[in-house]
Write a structure and sequence with these properties.
Radius of gyration: 26 Å
Shape: elongated
Distance between the termini: 19 Å
Helix content: under 10%
Oligomer: single chain
Strand content: over 45%
Structural class: mainly beta
Amino acid sequence: MLWAPLRAQANGFDAFGAGARSQGMAGSVGATVSDYTAVYHNPASLVFGKPTLGIGVHAVYDHTTVVLMPRPSGYDPPGYISRLNKRSDTPEPGGAGSMITGVSFVPIPGRLAMGATVLMPLAGLSKISTSYADEREQFFSNQLSYTRLGERMSREAIGFGAAYRFQPWISMGLGIMVLPSVRTVNYVYTPNATKPENIDLNMKIDTGLNQSVVAGLRLQPSDELTVGLVFQDELQMGVTGYNEVQVRGTNDDKPIFQPISFVQQYQPPRATVSVAARTDGGTALNAEGSWLGWSRFTNDQGVSGGFEDVIEWRLGLETAVADESAFRMGVAWKPSPVPTQDGRTNYVDNARWVLSAGGGTGFELWGERFRVDAAFQFHGLVERTVHKRILNSDAYPECEAARGPLCDEFPDPGGSATESTRVRSRGLQTGNPGFPGYRHGGYIIGAGMDVQWQF
């Protein structure tokens, strides 16, 4: 488990919560969690649990789509008809699955505890996928893609932490989430410039780690009230380096250097306040709010996306229905940090309502204590329609700035141009896949089940 950070890419717990208990309560467990999933939700709560070893599965059906508006005539830049891929809608991703494993130890019962948890996708590890959020994507997929959903929901996540209980009413925990940092240098030699598909290649790849600290407090002023406070710093996967390219007969003595710089799976800083109220009958109501610093978001190319900070809200209920058995339900509101995309960029994102339900029970088998929990979630995306803003014909900038209005890929030429060239260049000419607009929405269904051995 400790070697797994070398393959981690993204925090798959963000969308659904860590573990079936959290998923059944829409992620609102920061003040009541006590098993190894506390590493993510609130490491200070590790000290309230028993030594546990667990394994679980989580399945997702993603029915989100992006439907493009018909492209009007008269806006095609030169050579647009010969693009590698035709402009097209983005189909629904379909199903995906992952496995969660975790362990927690209690070296000093009631005082000191440690834990680790790993989420691994069943479809494969260490996937890197980049795209452009502007007109440059016309030369690649010629489609739009979701900024915070899609592959992010089924990527790896790993964390570990420890907690210490200073007094019966206060405990503190520290955890860490990690992602890899990759540096690649590629030495490329082309023996024949007329056959660029034949190359000699050497590679040098170094892998490190990016870390994000998770700090938590758990305050329990009475048996009926618990408060959790959590802060996690931002985290991202970085891919840097360069290509050193030589082409025989053209630049043998002065190679071409092509820089590589990508940011993958950005996770914003988050600060969470959780409050749980309990009754003598075994019912707990959990309310939770999280500030997410999405204004610091950078896209795959490391450029700011102009996002906004948001606050997510979650409410979860857990009630005992029999000895060691519980029923759970929850609701959450996840606003979108993405502003209106009426200009050059096409960041696709929706606000979401989350409804969840679940339950669990404990039992004894072969003289050992076990627990099984299951959960179901429905994410309803608030449909969003984008219309690109049309400016005056002479108001479009060239395609250089990272953000702003639609840019002109065939700007007006200088005074030496022919009259036919001047006519062809008039007005806006863009191959932006999001022009003139698009509509996106849908729903996501998640289901999970965990089995834990309390040893």
